[in-house]
Write a structure and sequence with these properties.
By secondary structure, this protein is mainly α. It has nine helices and three strands. The chain folds into two domains: 110 residues, Winged helix-like DNA-binding domain superfamily/Winged helix DNA-binding domain (Arc Repressor Mutant, subunit A); 104 residues. This is Helix-turn-helix domain-containing protein.
Length: 246
Amino acid sequence: MNYLSQYQPFNDKHELNEAVSDHLSRCKYDLNETDRDVLMMLSRYSVKYAGVSHLKVTTIANTVGKTKRTVQRTIRKLERLHIIETRSFLRKVTGGLGANIYVFLSPSVASSMTPRTSTETPTPVKDSAQVAENEPILFTNEKELLRNTSHKAPYKAFKDAVNTFAGNDSQPLVSKLYGVYLAQTKALKQAYEESELIDVAIQAINATMHASKRKAIRNVPGYYNGVISAMIDRMYDELIGDGLSA
């Protein structure tokens, strides 16, 4: 699992333990028992590569004695509190999405993140919004992709995630990808909270970015459509599984 070393935020387990202690102190009034259980489990599995773990939601759920849906909500909460960030993982050999990678944020990074509100409204997706499908899109600046998004309005969070790696002059691409997101999630509004759906959308952006580092993607909206579709299918399977086990 040496691939995790590229995400490692701390030099050793002592720095990790200090960070976890600081997070627990900073967020002591925001965390419930389940939040703390999940947080401590992630920290226990983040020792070899200090601050990084690669776990299935099912594994976490079975260990803490909660449903997968509860664990997913807890992980999103830990992200909103800037305790961890989630990275999507693409299998190199078999392809497809694997279990997420969880990276602890340092307390200094967390304290520098101040929520901001936005009144920006979505730009309608127009047929004239063009993406140069014959040109490869080279993504950059992965580090900031999923940071500072959970507290923003959904469209603003989505747009910022795209702009992080495609640049600020990427409105046509933003419109295309947001149109894909709206089409994929239209029938899911009653089953999921909007925050859950936008989290999946941003994870799909992250996964698309990872793929672009291995190969040039000529049809970015088409590739993104496949990634977010697979992620939504996985969400639905987990929802059905929770219902059957309830």
